[in-house]
Every structure is written in C-alpha cells, then in structure tokens.
Fold this sequence. Notes:
By secondary structure, the protein is of the alpha+beta class. The protein has one domain. The protein is built from 3 helices and 5 strands, in the order ββββααβα. The protein has helices spanning 52-57, 60-66, 94-105, and strands at 8-11, 13-14, 22-24, 39-42, 76-77. The strands form 2 sheets. A 3-stranded antiparallel beta sheet has the order 3-1-4.
Amino acid sequence: MLLKNGDVIIADTAEDETVGKCCEIAGLNDEKAISGLHTMPVRPMIKFAPAFLGYYMNSESFRDQLIPLMQGTKVTSISKTAMQGPKLIYPEDKDEQKNIANYFFGT
Length: 107
C-alpha cells in the first residue's frame, strides 16, 4: 500500500512498550512511500485534522489501551486484530482537533 498524507504507521514489534507507537504521514507530494518491517500502515476511515491522529495515538489515554493487548516476553508485539480493540475518543470538531495538534506541535 502506498502511503498518503494522514495515514499512520504503527510499530507492531519492539523489545519494550514502544510497541504501538506511531507516526502520522505528512508532507508527501509526488513521493512514493511505504512502511517498513515490523510496522502496520493504517489509513483512517474518517478524516481528521492534520497531525491530530498522530498525537492522539501516542497519548497516554490511547496507549494505556494497548498495553494489555501486547504479547511476548523478550520481544513484544501487537497484532492487527488486537489493534481493532482500542477505542478512539476524539472531538468531532475539526477546529478543535487542529487546535490540539497545534498545541503539541508548538504552532
């Protein structure tokens, strides 16, 4: 899957609780981008304000939902099926999402 702005790449394997950490794709123009090994590319089904989803999915409130879903001892992972369990709780107002993202981005 070629990535687009607004897509999220999630780390699905790590040696600690960084499993589930993610980044939101931004700034792509004509470049072609894909995600690498031990990652899950995700394309949101609904539109979010730029940068909001990346910050939200790295927040403590979202990551606390992931910890019980992680499996393994030395190497920890999370499955695509398990990633369907956490609930996204977000403001529907795009301006509010934008303000939240701007707060964390420092603009």
